[in-house]
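Supplementary notes for students who missed Thursday's class. We covered one full example, reproduced here. Read the sequence, then the structure, then the short commentary at the end.
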Amino acid sequence: MKLFAKTVTVLNSVAIALGVTHTAFALDPTTIYQRSSSAVVVIAAPDGKAFDLGSGFILDSKGFILTNQHVVGNNRQVWIKLADGSVYQGTVVSRNSNVDLAVIQIQPKKPLPSLRIQAVPPQIGQRVYAIGNPSSKTTGMLERSFSDGIVSRIDGRGLIQFTAPVTFGNSGGPLLDEDGYVVGIVTSGAPGTNLNFAVPAGAVNLLPGRRSTAGLQVQQINYYITVGLLQLRQNNLQKALQVFSAGIQRYPNDPTLYSNRGITKRFLRDYQGALEDFIRSIQLRPTSMAYFNRATLYQSELKQPQQAIKDYSEAIRINQKWGSPITFGDAFYQRGRLQAQGNKKAAIADFKQAARLYSQLGNQQRYRAALDQITLLTAQ
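Structure (token representation):
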């Protein structure tokens, strides 16, 4: 349980950090499936003399699997079939029927492929993909079936309605965004309709796993962040500002709350207020993402290119494994744009690094943009 709690906390922190500055450069569907399907599992839960079948996905390489509570039912032990055909007995280590989520732990013989959670709610109209194990009496189970659609609605609780076709057996499977991150956990679907629903990925924070005061504080902070980001995604900027400000009033030393409020103020064109929040976030925890946030403000709104270069450089220096290849690539790309004005050699080096990272991610659009910048500078 302690390992599960640590896993959820770390995954959520990374997801929130990614979400606040994430720019969607869509992967093609083939790449998304190839990278994600191996982490989707079949779950067989005993039901008398038979089994109820459903889906789930690997949350952590050590063997934690996320699914719906209604997939595992009241069982403590279930069976898990991995993409490679191996079968494990799993133990349900955490569950919350209110949000219809459960976590199963298995003991794998080697590290497993896993999916990363994006706790920031998707936008209405955003393309999404579902992978799961639909079944019927005529076809049987169709393991790791892939479908696509868009987000059609998000209600006040964060429940995601989407159009990607799902049916019986898909429950517990991942709903992925265009970068391959899990934005929801499929909970129900009506064949032949658009009435398909997913629990928001951020609800993983509501699973039991941390009983300490510190754990409760983390859960409460994450509540402010998740609700605030939902308001932000729905363009309710004043409401988002109120939520983040309330969180800061209660937890004045949390850097992520300041960072998210700074982004909200930036959207509201309160650039000085945004700068103050980014500075406070860096003072509390000088992370790569914090410097990246401030760098984009210096570059785009405050028109201070040298300060932006310093912050992009600091973001790159602190930890070269932060964020995602997209965000890390953006740090090199944007610094390259700024350096192109006076240091062509350094700018070309930055665009080469950006191109390498975008290529690793399979983002051809951004990769070509970086190569175009190199060609342009070389020709000068």
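Commentary. Confidence is low (pLDDT under 50) at residues 4-25, 210-214. DSSP finds twelve helices and 14 strands in the chain. If anything here is unclear, bring it to office hours.
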